[in-house]
Specification:
With 382 residues, the protein is α/β, with parallel strands linked by helices. 28% of the residues lie in helices and 25% in strands. This is Capsule synthesis protein CapA domain-containing protein.
Protein backbone atom coordinates (compact mmCIF):
# COMPACT_ATOMS: atom_id res chain seq x y z
CA UNK A 1 0.00 0.00 0.00
CA UNK A 2 1.31 3.45 -0.88
CA UNK A 3 2.10 5.55 2.19
CA UNK A 4 1.15 9.14 2.85
CA UNK A 5 4.48 10.65 1.78
CA UNK A 6 4.67 8.49 -1.34
CA UNK A 7 1.17 9.64 -2.29
CA UNK A 8 2.37 13.22 -1.97
CA UNK A 9 5.42 12.55 -4.11
CA UNK A 10 3.27 10.93 -6.81
CA UNK A 11 0.93 13.90 -6.83
CA UNK A 12 3.70 16.47 -6.89
CA UNK A 13 4.51 16.09 -10.58
CA UNK A 14 0.97 16.97 -11.58
CA UNK A 15 0.68 19.68 -8.96
CA UNK A 16 3.91 21.35 -10.02
CA UNK A 17 2.94 21.08 -13.67
CA UNK A 18 -0.25 22.97 -12.87
CA UNK A 19 1.83 25.56 -11.02
CA UNK A 20 3.97 26.08 -14.12
CA UNK A 21 0.54 26.14 -16.64
CA UNK A 22 5.13 57.93 9.45
CA UNK A 23 7.95 59.59 7.32
CA UNK A 24 8.33 60.51 3.69
CA UNK A 25 10.89 57.75 3.46
CA UNK A 26 8.07 55.24 3.78
CA UNK A 27 9.05 52.04 1.98
CA UNK A 28 6.47 51.65 -0.78
CA UNK A 29 6.25 49.29 -3.72
CA UNK A 30 3.84 47.95 -6.31
CA UNK A 31 2.83 44.38 -7.07
CA UNK A 32 3.47 43.89 -10.74
CA UNK A 33 2.76 40.69 -12.62
CA UNK A 34 -0.44 39.98 -10.74
CA UNK A 35 -3.78 38.75 -11.96
CA UNK A 36 -6.56 41.28 -12.39
CA UNK A 37 -7.49 42.97 -9.08
CA UNK A 38 -10.75 42.23 -7.35
CA UNK A 39 -13.85 43.95 -8.60
CA UNK A 40 -14.44 47.65 -7.93
CA UNK A 41 -10.72 48.30 -7.40
CA UNK A 42 -10.52 46.03 -4.39
CA UNK A 43 -7.67 43.59 -3.86
CA UNK A 44 -6.79 40.13 -2.61
CA UNK A 45 -4.16 39.57 0.10
CA UNK A 46 -2.53 36.18 0.65
CA UNK A 47 -0.47 35.42 3.76
CA UNK A 48 1.45 32.35 4.88
CA UNK A 49 3.20 31.08 7.98
CA UNK A 50 6.72 30.56 9.24
CA UNK A 51 9.61 29.90 6.87
CA UNK A 52 11.95 27.98 9.18
CA UNK A 53 14.78 26.26 7.26
CA UNK A 54 16.24 23.48 9.35
CA UNK A 55 19.43 21.74 8.22
CA UNK A 56 17.47 19.17 6.19
CA UNK A 57 15.70 21.98 4.33
CA UNK A 58 19.01 23.69 3.56
CA UNK A 59 20.40 20.40 2.30
CA UNK A 60 17.36 19.91 0.08
CA UNK A 61 17.84 23.37 -1.46
CA UNK A 62 21.47 22.50 -2.13
CA UNK A 63 20.39 19.29 -3.88
CA UNK A 64 17.84 21.22 -5.95
CA UNK A 65 20.60 23.61 -7.01
CA UNK A 66 22.68 20.69 -8.25
CA UNK A 67 25.11 20.99 -5.38
CA UNK A 68 26.19 24.50 -6.33
CA UNK A 69 24.50 27.06 -4.13
CA UNK A 70 20.92 26.75 -2.93
CA UNK A 71 17.65 26.84 -4.86
CA UNK A 72 14.45 27.08 -2.82
CA UNK A 73 12.20 27.79 -5.79
CA UNK A 74 11.19 24.15 -6.47
CA UNK A 75 10.30 23.85 -2.78
CA UNK A 76 7.66 26.57 -3.15
CA UNK A 77 6.45 25.87 -6.69
CA UNK A 78 3.36 23.97 -5.53
CA UNK A 79 1.80 27.09 -3.96
CA UNK A 80 3.11 29.58 -6.52
CA UNK A 81 -0.23 29.83 -8.36
CA UNK A 82 -2.06 30.87 -5.18
CA UNK A 83 0.66 33.27 -4.05
CA UNK A 84 1.30 34.92 -7.42
CA UNK A 85 -2.42 35.11 -8.10
CA UNK A 86 -2.95 37.58 -5.26
CA UNK A 87 -2.59 41.34 -5.55
CA UNK A 88 -0.43 41.32 -2.40
CA UNK A 89 1.33 38.34 -0.80
CA UNK A 90 3.05 38.33 2.61
CA UNK A 91 5.21 35.64 4.22
CA UNK A 92 6.92 35.27 7.59
CA UNK A 93 10.73 34.94 7.42
CA UNK A 94 11.47 33.56 10.86
CA UNK A 95 15.24 33.20 10.53
CA UNK A 96 18.17 35.43 9.70
CA UNK A 97 20.61 34.74 6.89
CA UNK A 98 24.19 33.55 6.88
CA UNK A 99 26.84 34.13 4.21
CA UNK A 100 29.62 32.34 2.34
CA UNK A 101 28.53 28.87 3.33
CA UNK A 102 28.10 29.67 7.01
CA UNK A 103 24.58 28.27 7.35
CA UNK A 104 22.88 26.49 10.23
CA UNK A 105 19.57 25.10 11.40
CA UNK A 106 18.24 24.76 14.93
CA UNK A 107 18.90 26.19 17.49
CA UNK A 108 20.65 29.30 16.12
CA UNK A 109 19.49 29.60 12.53
CA UNK A 110 21.46 31.11 9.68
CA UNK A 111 19.72 30.46 6.38
CA UNK A 112 21.09 30.75 2.85
CA UNK A 113 20.14 34.18 1.43
CA UNK A 114 18.89 32.53 -1.77
CA UNK A 115 15.65 31.84 0.06
CA UNK A 116 14.75 35.53 -0.38
CA UNK A 117 15.08 35.17 -4.14
CA UNK A 118 12.85 32.10 -4.08
CA UNK A 119 10.17 33.84 -2.03
CA UNK A 120 10.15 36.76 -4.46
CA UNK A 121 10.05 34.40 -7.46
CA UNK A 122 7.08 32.59 -5.91
CA UNK A 123 5.19 35.88 -5.84
CA UNK A 124 5.67 37.17 -2.32
CA UNK A 125 5.91 40.95 -2.06
CA UNK A 126 7.10 41.18 1.52
CA UNK A 127 7.73 39.29 4.74
CA UNK A 128 7.44 39.94 8.45
CA UNK A 129 10.82 39.44 10.15
CA UNK A 130 10.17 40.00 13.87
CA UNK A 131 10.52 36.59 15.53
CA UNK A 132 12.15 34.84 18.46
CA UNK A 133 15.05 33.98 16.10
CA UNK A 134 15.57 37.56 14.87
CA UNK A 135 18.72 37.96 17.00
CA UNK A 136 20.25 34.53 16.40
CA UNK A 137 23.24 36.32 14.83
CA UNK A 138 22.83 39.74 16.46
CA UNK A 139 22.71 43.00 14.54
CA UNK A 140 24.93 41.51 11.83
CA UNK A 141 22.33 38.86 11.09
CA UNK A 142 19.59 41.46 10.79
CA UNK A 143 21.63 43.59 8.43
CA UNK A 144 22.66 40.62 6.30
CA UNK A 145 19.05 39.42 6.08
CA UNK A 146 17.49 42.74 5.14
CA UNK A 147 20.26 43.48 2.62
CA UNK A 148 19.52 40.16 0.88
CA UNK A 149 15.79 40.81 0.91
CA UNK A 150 16.38 44.26 -0.61
CA UNK A 151 18.45 42.71 -3.39
CA UNK A 152 15.64 40.23 -4.09
CA UNK A 153 13.00 42.96 -4.18
CA UNK A 154 11.30 41.50 -1.12
CA UNK A 155 9.91 44.02 1.36
CA UNK A 156 10.26 43.56 5.11
CA UNK A 157 8.82 44.73 8.43
CA UNK A 158 9.69 44.03 12.05
CA UNK A 159 13.51 44.22 12.18
CA UNK A 160 15.70 47.22 11.34
CA UNK A 161 19.25 48.23 10.44
CA UNK A 162 18.93 51.86 11.50
CA UNK A 163 16.76 53.98 13.75
CA UNK A 164 15.45 55.88 10.73
CA UNK A 165 14.35 52.60 9.17
CA UNK A 166 12.63 51.61 12.40
CA UNK A 167 10.67 54.87 12.38
CA UNK A 168 9.49 54.48 8.80
CA UNK A 169 6.41 52.61 7.60
CA UNK A 170 6.45 49.70 5.17
CA UNK A 171 3.77 50.60 2.60
CA UNK A 172 2.91 48.27 -0.25
CA UNK A 173 0.58 48.81 -3.18
CA UNK A 174 -2.34 46.39 -3.63
CA UNK A 175 -4.72 47.34 -6.40
CA UNK A 176 -5.76 50.89 -5.65
CA UNK A 177 -4.91 50.58 -1.95
CA UNK A 178 -1.83 51.34 0.12
CA UNK A 179 -1.29 48.60 2.69
CA UNK A 180 0.90 49.10 5.76
CA UNK A 181 2.66 45.99 7.06
CA UNK A 182 3.78 45.96 10.71
CA UNK A 183 5.46 43.07 12.55
CA UNK A 184 6.10 42.23 16.22
CA UNK A 185 7.42 39.34 18.33
CA UNK A 186 6.91 38.23 21.92
CA UNK A 187 10.68 37.97 22.45
CA UNK A 188 14.06 36.93 21.05
CA UNK A 189 14.91 33.72 22.94
CA UNK A 190 16.71 35.65 25.68
CA UNK A 191 19.06 37.39 23.26
CA UNK A 192 19.44 41.04 24.30
CA UNK A 193 18.81 43.81 21.82
CA UNK A 194 22.10 45.04 20.33
CA UNK A 195 23.80 47.75 22.44
CA UNK A 196 22.50 51.17 21.48
CA UNK A 197 19.90 49.63 19.14
CA UNK A 198 16.66 49.25 21.13
CA UNK A 199 14.80 49.69 17.83
CA UNK A 200 16.40 46.65 16.10
CA UNK A 201 13.46 44.30 16.70
CA UNK A 202 9.83 45.31 17.19
CA UNK A 203 8.49 43.70 20.38
CA UNK A 204 4.88 43.13 21.34
CA UNK A 205 3.44 46.05 23.29
CA UNK A 206 -0.23 46.80 22.76
CA UNK A 207 0.06 50.57 23.24
CA UNK A 208 3.01 50.81 20.88
CA UNK A 209 1.32 48.59 18.26
CA UNK A 210 -1.79 50.74 18.26
CA UNK A 211 0.31 53.92 18.06
CA UNK A 212 2.23 52.45 15.12
CA UNK A 213 -1.00 51.52 13.35
CA UNK A 214 -2.32 55.04 13.77
CA UNK A 215 0.96 56.46 12.49
CA UNK A 216 0.74 54.19 9.46
CA UNK A 217 -2.75 55.49 8.78
CA UNK A 218 -1.48 59.07 8.97
CA UNK A 219 1.30 58.09 6.55
CA UNK A 220 -1.33 57.17 3.97
CA UNK A 221 -2.23 53.55 4.65
CA UNK A 222 -5.71 52.52 3.54
CA UNK A 223 -5.32 49.11 5.19
CA UNK A 224 -3.14 48.23 8.20
CA UNK A 225 -1.96 44.62 8.58
CA UNK A 226 -0.20 43.37 11.72
CA UNK A 227 1.96 40.24 11.74
CA UNK A 228 2.37 38.98 15.30
CA UNK A 229 4.79 36.26 16.46
CA UNK A 230 2.98 34.95 19.53
CA UNK A 231 1.25 31.98 21.14
CA UNK A 232 2.19 28.71 22.81
CA UNK A 233 4.17 26.25 20.72
CA UNK A 234 2.34 23.03 19.76
CA UNK A 235 -0.98 24.28 21.09
CA UNK A 236 -3.86 24.21 18.62
CA UNK A 237 -5.88 26.65 20.68
CA UNK A 238 -4.89 30.32 21.04
CA UNK A 239 -3.52 31.10 24.49
CA UNK A 240 -4.51 33.84 26.90
CA UNK A 241 -2.02 36.36 25.50
CA UNK A 242 -3.30 35.86 21.98
CA UNK A 243 -6.94 36.20 22.99
CA UNK A 244 -6.34 39.23 25.21
CA UNK A 245 -4.12 41.02 22.71
CA UNK A 246 -6.48 40.30 19.82
CA UNK A 247 -9.36 41.83 21.78
CA UNK A 248 -7.32 44.92 22.66
CA UNK A 249 -5.97 45.52 19.16
CA UNK A 250 -9.22 44.96 17.29
CA UNK A 251 -11.20 47.18 19.66
CA UNK A 252 -8.94 50.16 18.97
CA UNK A 253 -10.47 52.72 16.63
CA UNK A 254 -10.01 56.32 15.56
CA UNK A 255 -13.02 58.40 14.53
CA UNK A 256 -15.08 55.23 14.37
CA UNK A 257 -12.64 53.50 12.03
CA UNK A 258 -10.66 50.42 13.20
CA UNK A 259 -6.96 51.15 13.59
CA UNK A 260 -6.05 47.63 12.48
CA UNK A 261 -7.67 45.79 9.58
CA UNK A 262 -6.12 42.31 9.75
CA UNK A 263 -3.94 40.32 12.19
CA UNK A 264 -1.71 37.47 11.00
CA UNK A 265 -0.23 35.15 13.63
CA UNK A 266 2.86 32.97 13.54
CA UNK A 267 5.16 31.00 15.90
CA UNK A 268 3.11 28.10 17.35
CA UNK A 269 4.41 25.61 14.70
CA UNK A 270 0.87 24.28 14.20
CA UNK A 271 -2.18 25.68 12.42
CA UNK A 272 -4.48 27.58 14.75
CA UNK A 273 -7.95 29.04 14.44
CA UNK A 274 -9.11 31.98 12.39
CA UNK A 275 -11.64 34.22 14.16
CA UNK A 276 -13.48 37.47 13.57
CA UNK A 277 -12.89 39.62 16.66
CA UNK A 278 -14.72 42.94 16.99
CA UNK A 279 -15.39 42.74 13.26
CA UNK A 280 -11.71 42.21 12.32
CA UNK A 281 -10.22 38.95 11.06
CA UNK A 282 -7.54 37.43 13.28
CA UNK A 283 -5.45 34.44 12.24
CA UNK A 284 -4.04 33.14 15.50
CA UNK A 285 -1.47 30.93 13.78
CA UNK A 286 -0.81 29.85 10.21
CA UNK A 287 1.68 27.12 11.10
CA UNK A 288 5.07 26.42 9.51
CA UNK A 289 5.07 26.68 5.74
CA UNK A 290 8.65 25.38 5.52
CA UNK A 291 10.37 23.41 8.29
CA UNK A 292 12.31 20.19 8.74
CA UNK A 293 11.26 17.36 11.03
CA UNK A 294 9.52 18.94 14.00
CA UNK A 295 9.59 17.62 17.57
CA UNK A 296 6.98 18.72 20.07
CA UNK A 297 7.32 19.53 23.75
CA UNK A 298 7.40 15.81 24.64
CA UNK A 299 10.28 15.22 22.24
CA UNK A 300 8.18 13.25 19.76
CA UNK A 301 8.15 13.95 16.05
CA UNK A 302 4.88 15.75 15.38
CA UNK A 303 3.53 15.96 11.82
CA UNK A 304 1.48 19.01 12.74
CA UNK A 305 4.75 20.96 12.60
CA UNK A 306 4.72 20.56 8.83
CA UNK A 307 1.09 21.61 8.36
CA UNK A 308 -0.04 25.16 7.71
CA UNK A 309 -2.51 27.41 5.96
CA UNK A 310 -2.46 30.21 3.46
CA UNK A 311 -4.97 32.90 4.35
CA UNK A 312 -6.61 34.76 1.47
CA UNK A 313 -8.66 37.89 2.13
CA UNK A 314 -10.52 39.95 -0.45
CA UNK A 315 -10.81 43.64 0.47
CA UNK A 316 -13.35 46.05 -0.99
CA UNK A 317 -12.93 49.83 -0.96
CA UNK A 318 -15.11 52.02 1.25
CA UNK A 319 -18.48 53.08 -0.04
CA UNK A 320 -17.90 56.58 1.31
CA UNK A 321 -14.85 58.63 2.19
CA UNK A 322 -13.59 58.04 5.71
CA UNK A 323 -15.06 54.54 5.98
CA UNK A 324 -12.77 51.51 6.25
CA UNK A 325 -11.87 49.01 3.58
CA UNK A 326 -13.80 45.79 4.29
CA UNK A 327 -13.01 42.11 3.96
CA UNK A 328 -15.74 40.76 1.71
CA UNK A 329 -14.37 37.23 1.36
CA UNK A 330 -12.20 35.20 3.74
CA UNK A 331 -10.61 31.91 2.69
CA UNK A 332 -7.88 29.51 3.74
CA UNK A 333 -5.80 27.04 1.76
CA UNK A 334 -4.52 23.97 3.68
CA UNK A 335 -0.85 23.17 3.07
CA UNK A 336 1.71 20.51 3.90
CA UNK A 337 5.50 20.55 3.74
CA UNK A 338 6.34 17.07 2.50
CA UNK A 339 9.56 16.02 4.21
CA UNK A 340 10.55 13.34 1.71
CA UNK A 341 9.88 15.40 -1.41
CA UNK A 342 11.09 18.67 0.11
CA UNK A 343 8.09 20.49 -1.30
CA UNK A 344 5.28 22.71 -0.03
CA UNK A 345 2.03 21.07 -1.15
CA UNK A 346 -1.36 22.67 -1.74
CA UNK A 347 -3.40 19.90 -0.14
CA UNK A 348 -6.53 20.55 -2.18
CA UNK A 349 -4.59 20.15 -5.42
CA UNK A 350 -2.70 17.10 -4.16
CA UNK A 351 -5.94 15.38 -3.13
CA UNK A 352 -7.50 16.20 -6.49
CA UNK A 353 -4.51 14.48 -8.11
CA UNK A 354 -5.01 11.33 -6.04
CA UNK A 355 -2.95 11.77 -2.88
CA UNK A 356 -4.61 10.20 0.15
CA UNK A 357 -4.30 13.23 2.38
CA UNK A 358 -7.91 13.94 3.27
CA UNK A 359 -7.24 13.22 6.95
CA UNK A 360 -4.51 15.87 7.11
CA UNK A 361 -6.60 18.42 5.26
CA UNK A 362 -9.66 17.76 7.42
CA UNK A 363 -7.66 18.10 10.65
CA UNK A 364 -6.36 21.49 9.51
CA UNK A 365 -9.88 22.54 8.50
CA UNK A 366 -11.35 21.53 11.86
CA UNK A 367 -8.73 23.53 13.79
CA UNK A 368 -9.09 26.60 11.57
CA UNK A 369 -12.88 26.61 12.03
CA UNK A 370 -12.80 25.67 15.74
CA UNK A 371 -13.76 29.16 16.98
CA UNK A 372 -16.77 29.67 14.75
CA UNK A 373 -15.14 31.36 11.78
CA UNK A 374 -17.37 29.44 9.40
CA UNK A 375 -20.41 31.27 10.76
CA UNK A 376 -18.66 34.54 9.92
CA UNK A 377 -18.05 33.46 6.32
CA UNK A 378 -14.61 31.83 6.33
CA UNK A 379 -14.39 29.05 3.75
CA UNK A 380 -11.76 26.57 2.66
CA UNK A 381 -10.64 27.56 -0.81
CA UNK A 382 -10.97 24.96 -3.55
Amino acid sequence: MIGRRQQVALALTAVLAAGAACQNQNRESGAEGRSAPAAADGFTLVASGDVLPHTSVIERASFDAGGSGHDFRPMLAGVQPVVAGADLALCHMETVYGADGDYAGYPDFKSPPQIAQALAATGYDGCSTASNHALDDGATGIRRTLDAMDRAGLRHAGTHRTEAEARSVTLLRAGSAKVAHLSYTFGTNGNALPPGQPWAVDLIDADRMIADARAARRAGADVVVLSVHWGTEWQDEPDRQQLTLAQRLTSSATAGRPDIDLILGTHAHVPQAYEKVNGTWVVYGMGDQIAGEMYNGEGAQDPRGNESTLGRFTFAPPARAGEPWRVTKAEFVPQLYDLDAGRVVDLNKAIAEGAELEGVRDRIRDVVLSRGAGQDGLVMAE
